Amino acid sequence: MNNFIKQIAGQLTSFAEINYDLVELNKIMRHDSIEKICIFVLGPEGTNISQAAEKWILDRNIGYKSNIILCDSPEKELEKAKEISDSKTFPVFVLCAVYNRLFELYFSNPDSYFFMDHYYMKLDNMLFATNKYSKKNTYKVVSHPSPAVLLNNLENIDVTYANSNSFSAKLCKSGEADMCITTESGRRLNDLKSIHKFGSPTMLFTFGTTLHGVKMLRKIGGMLDD
């Protein structure tokens, strides 16, 4: 291998190779070595991701040491999770399987364990909603980029993007948009009116951890094997 190829190879990173089944993972997460679990989710209040995290915590029986932290974007979730370095604190970031930029996050962070665990949940009913209807030639609609394609067959709309379904509802409530795609929780929290219900299909949510978390998993897993 010539020097140029060696130089290139030396600049590349490798994926974190780690895998635990659900039984092993639950034992590790509940181990006394982990005193606190910080779970970073997409906010504001009412997002599907935050609801999935709450149910995951209950199902895994780790509520007594878990703390949910709301973030502005999935990218910010991972950024904040990577700030955790305390030896007693385990970081978790939660993502939706249909997030339109998930592949970028995954391949840009090969040292993280993206698919540590997963959880299936019916989406909080996805809605097309408004704060106050008035007839216009063109309507401004705000939506997260992922569900925005649901509006592709509509005319006379100008779509802008928000970081989450709940934030879309907030922008609509404040008058920055005429309509929005949001969840039932987002509609209720912002007192919007439902125009159309898209439904609540089952969605897959992924639970990952950072390199710090990977090291904790390996260390505690090794202790359980002894």
Mean pLDDT: 93
**CATH architectural label of the largest domain:** 3-Layer(aba) Sandwich
Kindly report the oligomeric state of this protein.
Answer: single chain
Helix coverage percent: 25-40%
Order of strands across the biggest sheet? 2-1-3-10-4
How far from one another are the termini?
41 Å
Would you list the SSEs in sequence order as H and E? HHEHEHEHEEEEHEHEEH
| Strand-residue proportion | 25-35%
- Principal-axis shape: globular
Main sheet attributes: strand count, strand direction, barrel closure:
5 strands, mixed
List the total number of helices. Answer: 8
Structural class: alpha/beta
Under CATH, the topology of the largest domain can be stated as D-Maltodextrin-Binding Protein, domain 2
What is the class of the largest domain in the CATH system? Alpha Beta
Rg, alpha carbons:
20 Å
The fourth-level CATH homologous superfamily of the largest domain is Periplasmic binding protein-like II
Low-confidence stretches: none
Counting DSSP E segments of at least 2 residues, the number of strands comes to 10
Number of domains: 2
General description of the model:
The chain is an alpha/beta fold. The protein has two domains: 12-122 and 203-225, D-Maltodextrin-Binding Protein, domain 2 (3-Layer(aba) Sandwich), CATH 3.40.190.10; 126-200, D-Maltodextrin-Binding Protein, domain 2 (3-Layer(aba) Sandwich), CATH 3.40.190.10. The chain contains eight helices and ten strands. The chain has a five-stranded mixed β-sheet with strand order 2-1-3-10-4. Strands 7-6-8-5-9 form a five-stranded mixed β-sheet. α2 (22-29) packs across α8 (211-225). The protein is globular, with a radius of gyration of 20 Å. 34% of the residues are buried.
